[in-house]
Design brief:
Blueprint (H helix, E strand, L loop, with lengths): L1 E4 L8 H11 L5 E7 L8 H7 L1 H10 L2 E5 L4 H12 L5 E6 L4 H4 L11 H8 L1 H4 L4 E9 L10 H5 L5 E8 L10 H10 L4 E4 L5 H10 L5 E4 L1 H5 L3 H7 L5 H22 L3 H12 L9 H9 L3 H14 L2
Parallel strand pairs: 1-2, 1-8, 2-3, 3-4, 4-5, 5-6, 6-7, 7-8
Helix pairs in contact: 1-3, 1-13, 10-12, 13-14, 13-16, 15-16
The protein binds flavin mononucleotide (FMN).
């Protein structure tokens, strides 16, 4: 079973993906970039750098990085695809799942799901690029878990490598019950390979989905991998990582992240420290509250690194 690393805006950036790939890349079939979109008629300077060849060459060359686009219509999609294809990308994931209200209310992300005509127009962009590959990442609907039914014919008649389904509605954001009944029905209705995505935190969670839905072709994992970067290794190998091995691997990953962010951020120590603290929003949830607080409150990088080392040691 292939494991795909989900896009998580603000977390799975180029520094994170490159570091994770160096340590755990053997178990990840593909990494997906957080969404890229058109703003004020173009791609933001920061995004152009972030998605550009310089920061992503290794993964692009290996063919394991797919950019995700968040277009409102075929014209925006066409623009983004042409820009990104110039960088060397040959596959594109189209976001029909983003639930952020500021995005959804403009008929982007999952805000498009109640509008089959708009989805049809957008997906028409695939016909303009027969030499490129496309996939979709979507939710069940914006308001209703069966909105996808209005899109089945359109999705089935679009040339897609796969469809990733996060079985929640946009209104649920990232919380609340996953709707496996609706997912099961969608799995039967969509004729493309299906990737399951949502709330996979342990190898047992992954196994359950595999057993319950043998038709599922791959699993996409986001927060579970940010919490335990070894999770894909554990799923693929079937061998659990000991807490000590995990702490050591996380220590290595952490060093690579610190070096990577120090190279790309130009706001000095304060900015690097703030960025490194965000890593702990998801990482190692089993860590003690006291250790986590110390990391959160650290005032400079030296203090921060000391707290991180102590916390990793205390975790096994
Ligand atoms: C903070 C945050 C940012 C996200 N950014 C993106 C994004 O850029 N593109 C996307 O398709 N999904 C995005 N997602 C959704 C994840 O890719 C994934 O679908 C969701 O977290 C459920 O999977 P998980 O339970 O394995 O994390 C984001 C989720 C979170 C929590």
């Amino acid at each position: 079973m292939h494991i795909l690393f989900a896009p998580i805006q603000g977390y799975t950036d180029s520094v994170y993906r490159n570091a994770h790939n160096q340590l755990f890349g053997n178990s990840i079939y593909k990494y997906y970039t957080p969404f890229i979109r058109v703003e004020k008629g173009g791609i933001r300077k920061h995004d152009a750098k972030e998605f550009g060849a310089e920061r992503n060459s290794e993964l692009i060359e290996k063919g394991v990085l797919t950019p995700q686009i968040l277009p409102a219509n075929a014209e925006e999609a066409d623009y983004l695809i042409n820009e990104l294809a110039n960088t060397g990308y040959r596959e594109f994931d189209i976001n029909l799942g983003c639930p952020f209200p500021m995005i959804a209310k403009h008929h982007k992300g999952c805000g498009l799901l109640p509008y089959p005509d708009e989805v049809k127009e957008l997906l028409g962009v695939t016909e303009r690029h027969p030499d490129l590959k496309f996939s979709l990442k979507m939710r069940l609907g914006l308001e209703d878990a069966y909105e996808w039914k209005g899109l089945t014919t359109i999705i089935n008649s679009t040339p897609l490598s796969h469809v990733t389904i996060h079985p929640r509605t946009g209104r649920q954001q990232y919380k609340g019950e996953i709707d496996l009944n609706a997912f099961g029905e969608m799995l039967d209705a969509i004729q493309h390979p299906i990737v399951y995505n949502g709330d996979l935190l342990t190898p047992a969670d992954a196994q359950k989905i595999q057993e319950q839905y043998p038709k599922v072709g791959a699993l996409m994992i986001g927060r579970g991998l940010l919490a335990n970067p070894c999770l894909a290794d554990e799923i693929v190998s079937g061998v659990p990582t000991t807490q000590k091995e995990k702490a050591e691997k996380i220590g290595e990953l952490h060093e690579m992240l610190l070096e990577g962010y120090s190279n790309v951020l130009d706001g000095g120590e304060c900015q690097i420290l703030a960025k490194m603290k965000t890593v702990w929003v998801y990482l190692l949830p089993e860590m003690g509250k006291r250790e986590r607080k110390k990391i959160e409150k650290s005032k400079n990088l030296q203090e921060y690194c000391g707290f991180v080392q102590n916390a990793l040691k205390a975790s096994y």
